Amino acid sequence: MKTIKPIKLSSYKIDTNEHLTSAEMGKLWATYMGNSMGKCVISYYLQHVKDSDIKTLLENALKLSEDFLKKTEEIFKKENFPIPKGFSEEDVNLGAPRLFQDEFYVHYLKYTAKAGMSIYTIAIPLVYRKDVKEFFRYCMDSTMDLMEQIKEILMNKGLIMKPPLIPIPDKLDFIHQDFLNGFFGHVRPMHALEITHFYDNIENNVTSKALIMAFAQVAKDEKIRKLFEKGRDLTTSTIEDYMQKLYDEHLPAPSFLDDLVTTSTFSPFSDKLMLFHKMDMFSMKIRAFGNSVAVNGRRDIGLLYTKSFLKIGAFVEDAAKIYIGKGWMEQAPHAPEREKLASD
């Protein structure tokens, strides 16, 4: 049912002949890079999947990635915008042995669908050109449809538990002076939003941990492998800290997915793809921490997220240094160097 009244404006018209803004360029570029990587990863998953429902889910996800890539490329070509190199068949070995069990694929798709939706939801209020605006609305709607299929499979097959249950309030209440306490005096129970973000962060991190554990098994470059091992241990510590916060409230937490990684040491992906993937996933954690801090009201929880932020930030910086050193880092669209232009 539509509840918003239409507004007819004629003084300003947006058409597809307008130049792309920085927001439109940036979000289209990020969408292309992410989906070129996703296409490689999902194509490999499809080589080993046995469960028919999960196979259909992967096929749907692959079709979306291919469609998003095609539509992004069409807009770029219209603007004579250089097509990013991204990732291609040279970054995936479809003949590599199985590295994950089928169940992992569903958790992986949930994590990456969340990442995609974060790009699209931020883009939608910032883009104005009609074709770009319609594209991101399409991306958002399609990814939401995929997310519904993901959740249905997770629940139907008993692969996940819902966020913890808490009592419905019996009356309206107001905050007292001890609301911010976390270390001394009376410490209040966590409220619903704090619980939500702990659950979400744990859910994301157990998927991230299983993936980086697998990448550490198969990485060819010794420096990259050691970085993955460092990231694995860091993620394990983070998960355990977050789980303990829920356990302290006598609430359940999502479980680890480590058992869904096989013992294969033969890499299905290039080191370049794996390093980009983990750098991107850890960067997404920083955004998740920001969202978590925004709704938090306890000092002990705020300190925990601050420590996580610093550790994750250091990992992303280390990963970026290696990525740049290898000559793999593509330049995102950027503002002109005015000082350099003036000196030429």
TrEMBL record:
Gene3D superfamilies: 1.20.1260.10. InterPro entries: DUF3231 (IPR021617), Ferritin-like (IPR012347). It holds the Pfam family DUF3231. This is DUF3231 family protein. It comes from Neobacillus bataviensis LMG 21833.
